Amino acid sequence: ENSLGQEAHAAPSVFSYFLPDFSPSGPLYSASLYSPESQVLTSPKLISTLNGLFSFLEFGLVDCYGGFGSSSQFMDPSCPKTKSQRWLNKIKRKISYGSSLYPPAANNAEKIVDELDVLLTNGRLTTYSRRNLIQVVKNSHNFVHGLRNAQKLIITTPEYQSTSVVRRRVGFRVKPSDLPPPTKKYRALVHIMLNGGADSFNIVIPHSGCTHTTSFDAYSKIRGVVAIPKTKLNVINAVNAQPCARYGLNDALPYLYQLYNKKDALFVAGVGTLSEPTDQSNWQKNHFGIVQLFAHNKQQTDSEQVDIFQEYPGTGIGGRILSTLQKNGYETSALSVGGVSEFLDGDIAIAFFDPSTGVQKLHPIPYERDITDIVLTLNGPTEPISGLFGESWARQIHQALSDSAKYNAALDSVELQTKFPDTYLGNQLRAIAHLIKTREIRKVERDLFYATSEGWDMHAKVGNGLIQLLGEVDMALKSFVTEMKDQNIWNDVLIFQASEFGRTTTPNTSGGTDHAWSGNYFLAGGLVKGGQILGKYPDISEGSPLNIDRGRIIPSFPWDSMWKPVAQFLGVRSNEINKFVVPNFRKFGRDHVLLYGKVFKQDCVDNETFYFDHKSNTCSKWATTEKRCKMRDKFGRFVRNY
Description:
The protein is of the alpha/beta class. 33% of the residues lie in helices and 14% in strands. The protein contains 20 helices and 16 strands. The chain has helices at residues 27-30, 43-59, 89-95, 109-121, 127-139, 143-154, 158-161, 216-223, 254-261, 283-287, 296-305, 317-327, 372-378, 388-412, 424-437, 439-442, 462-486, 559-570, 574-581, 596-599; strands at residues 187-194, 204-210, 233-237, 244-250, 265-272, 332-336, 350-352, 446-453, 493-498, 519-525, 533-535, 557-558, 610-613, 618-621, 627-632, 638-641. The strands form four sheets. Strands 1, 5, 6, 7, 8, 9, 10, 11 and 12 form a nine-stranded mixed sheet that branches. A three-stranded antiparallel sheet has the order 2-4-3, with helices on one face. A hairpin with a 5-residue loop joins strand 15 (627-632) and strand 16. It is elongated.
């Protein structure tokens, strides 16, 4: 799993390891070509896969330096650390579970490379690659070493990694330039996706002070065997106009309960994918043929792209936010510790991290030379007529090696003080916290992170499973917030929790719940105006206006509603949000708007360009001609007047 991302009998979902219609951003997406395996070909997996193959060629099937074999802890001799300890073939045969004993028919560099070319690429090596590989073999200190180097390098080429013809172009790919020192205040968004469809109606539950149809008794009746007892709820005040004055937060989330009461977390109720304002009379007309409701893969796409009519195809909501910020002069980065997601797709290259192994170094065998430069050379620029799959591989390996060099140096220079739980999400949030601590070294002003929690598709026995996963979320959240406060950065970090859809409010015959629509999600951060429930908690009773059937509840608010103030928090200008970030939001009226001042405690992020108008409760731009006055706002800062 950590090396290839495809552990036997451990697929992350019913869709196995990748989707048949997956198309990665870049040349393949632009050409409408599919590449399912690219869904697991993140930078960490790319490097770990190559390292596993390098290890096999060097040592046989063992686990030395990223190998795919079994533990080397009790091997004798142990993994070699110097050239003098290098294993001979007889040691490989004794220790490993198999090794490469390929004997080439010739013993000169040209013929060795030509033979490998026929065997491994069907004779598709470019003249440029062939020339470079021959030179590597000639520069090796003996025949065996030269053969091994040629084998290692040829498997890094786009000719080997794709079946298309590669046409090299003269020159080298442009290397990322050094960034200038940051001039804007840092902010980060952590997007946590609960994959599978979380049963959020068992997270935030009607408690007391309710109307008849939305009471706890009505909830218990419709939820039946999956209902949470009232004794398992921590009471929270709704504050805003909701069907209940008080709701119960599942007691598997004690730390989130603390954040809510400390006014650092809020919930938005009744959220989901919507094409336009919808009720029972028009839900089918508004969505059939446009989206595939209740389907995991399609709803994950819709919730991560938030562009239901594909006005900006191939982009995610996070990617569009970053693209807009970059155009406005921000130094930005897109980082995923949760694998491939459409959330970050856009103009900004995505850096991928394995939360368990960190950022790996390519070819980490200590007594061998660094092969980064020659690998980059072999994956140089291509002609427009070159195969797109090969070009996609070459771009990915350049990105992986660039990330490895950049982030290893930064991460090695800082350490975390907080202990994180050793869970799937805990390890991801630890990695994010570590990356946030490198923000000054990386010279970045805006970070967008993507993390996931798996296993929320509970069609059976939802009770204990939900409690366990909520507990993992809560423990990971506690460690992360503690670390952010230790870094004195909590006010500039925002956590956005989501899931592709909610679950049916009525249980199935297996004690689980099925795919539905509307859900309830939380925002957390030091500047979140917490302790309240925004949106509209629905009436979940049978026959309610938004209940389609079996407790599939129509959302009252689109995802766009949550993302609009979040984009403002990150510094996107108001006039750019509706146009580019949430283009479909123009179909919704003011009753679907979550105003910035209702979601956040502070005014606009860019105080030099914008000010917070308390009268209209919006973020407004300063006039061209303005005067300073010696008045302070409620936060104690000087305000302008005109």
